[in-house]
Amino acid sequence: MSVGELLRARTPVGRWVGLGAAAVVWFALYQVNLPFWDWALYRVLGFDAGTQLGSGVHFFFYDSVKIVLLLVGIIFAVTVLRSFMSVERTRALLGGKREGVGNVMAAGLGVVTPFCSCSAVPAFIGFVAAGVPLGVTMSFLIASPLVNEVAIALLFGMFGIGPTLMYIGAGLVIAIVAGFTMGRLRLERWVEPFVFETRLGGQLIDSTVGLTWDDRIQMGVEEVASILRKIWPYLLVGIGLGAAIHGWAPADFFARYAGAGNPFAVLIAVGIGIPLYSNAAGIMPLVQALHDKGLPMGTLLAFMMAVVALSLPEMILLRRVLKPPLIATFIAVTGAGIVAVGYLFNAVIPV
């Protein structure tokens, strides 16, 4: 009997065996994803990991599978969980006077989740669909790629405790304030309607009261299939663009035009960083090299934050669930915070 047949089993034993088998398969696929593509692309097909082409092709296949697996796992789990709590109850719990606390909690959760900007999108979709306030969810979406343990460890090793603590504090402040600001603007009307819909058997349902476990599992499976059908073109385009520009940065141009003597250096750094795509670990070697050339710390941190929190591939993925005005607001509010932090760091930490 296949995993799908087990999931559709109508006996309690069959249901839980099916869920367990599905979880084992999901975990196994997630664990073998990286070593499989290392083997298939570098050893079998002969791509060179040290070249732009080799790393870009590897990035496309590895990230495509990883993000699909994250979408499947997170959306299924969140759909089943939200079937026990109505959207209205969730909003009441995390909204209103508690929204500021929710932003702090979401930003803290983002820090401990090792997601790049594109990988954070599945969790973002799941949180919004579950009725978590949009501003709170935005705090997670910003903090998850912006502040992570890899960047913290690398920054500490390269520059010491002071810049590292400033980076952590600045990232959290940006995530909390930007999310809170967007929450105050009440931008839910710019979220695609299907994100908020609850369906069972292809039909919209108004209440989850009285659902059986079989109904909840069916909802999870249907929600995964529905969202994957809606976003897969955006997923492939976003990851393909990320693969094309993966690891690329105009270091000489950066050093020439964003040096310490240019008052617009932070703005230039953010402008260069947004179209690029990398996680914090991938961008740190460039940050080290540019620091050795004398670029100010604030300029470098603004550049790194823009790369990991406002990447163009992430915006393409988000477009399927967010309307352009909300994406523009997200970029503007987050970008303004990053620019402000860059100038503050340059003023506090001289070259």
Could you explain how this protein is built, in words?
By secondary structure, the protein is mainly α. It is built from 16 helices and 2 strands. A two-stranded antiparallel ribbon has the order 1-2. Helix 6 packs antiparallel against helix 7, helix 8 runs antiparallel to helix 9 (about 160-185) and helix 9 packs antiparallel against helix 16. The longest helix is centred in the N-terminal third of the chain and has 33 residues, at about 10-45.
Care to count the β-strands?
2
Query: What sort of overall outline do the alpha carbons produce when their principal axes are compared?
Result: globular
Strand content: under 5%
The largest beta-sheet arranges its strands as: 1-2
User: Percent range for helical residues?
Assistant: over 70%
Class of secondary structure makeup: mainly alpha
Unreliable stretches covering 5 or more consecutive residues: none
Q: Topology as H/E string?
A: HHHHHHHHHEEHHHHHHH
Whole-number mean pLDDT: 74
**Biggest sheet details:** 2 strands, antiparallel
Computed Rg = 21 Å
Number of domains: 3
Query: What is the terminal-to-terminal distance?
Result: 65 Å
Q: How many helix segments?
A: 16
Write the layout of secondary structure elements.
Layout: H1 3-7, H2 12-44, H3 52-82, H4 87-94, H5 99-112, H6 117-129, H7 134-146, H8 149-159, H9 161-184, E1 199-200, E2 203-204, H10 213-245, H11 251-257, H12 265-273, H13 280-292, H14 297-309, H15 312-319, H16 324-348
Antiparallel strand pairs: 1-2
Helix pairs in contact: 2-3, 3-6, 3-10, 5-7, 5-9, 6-7, 7-9, 7-14, 8-9, 8-13, 9-16, 10-15, 12-14, 13-14, 14-16
